[in-house]
Amino acid sequence: RGRVRSEATVQVVKKNRRLKANDRERNRMHNLNDALDTLRGVLPAFPDETKLTKIETLRFAHNYIWALSETIRIADLQAGKSGDAPRLL
Predict the structure, then answer these.
(1) 22 lies in which domain range?
(2) pTM of the model
(3) DSSP per-residue letters across 8-29
(4) Which CATH number does the domain housing residue 58 bear?
(5) What keywords tag this UniProt record (predicted)?
(6) Is residue 87 part of a domain?
(7) Is residue 40 part of a domain?
């Protein structure tokens, strides 16, 4: 097996592992928050400019993408009936 370490050495190793894990988690959360801020920036804004929560941002983005997809689908259906290309404003 491995070498025998003193209790003090074990505690130092554990503390360093925990500090590194905390740092990785902090960086992960910063990256996630940056990505959500970027997503909020491309969604239509609300009149009162309130910041959406994380879950509200994801739900709003999902619904917005669905609405855009439906708009394109309906425009394609109408273009197929009339023979014209869709004119989205």
Answers:
(1) 7-82
(2) 0.72
(3) HHHHHHHHHHHHHHHHHHHHHH
(4) 4.10.280
(5) Developmental protein, Differentiation, DNA-binding, Neurogenesis, Nucleus, Transcription, Transcription regulation
(6) no
(7) yes
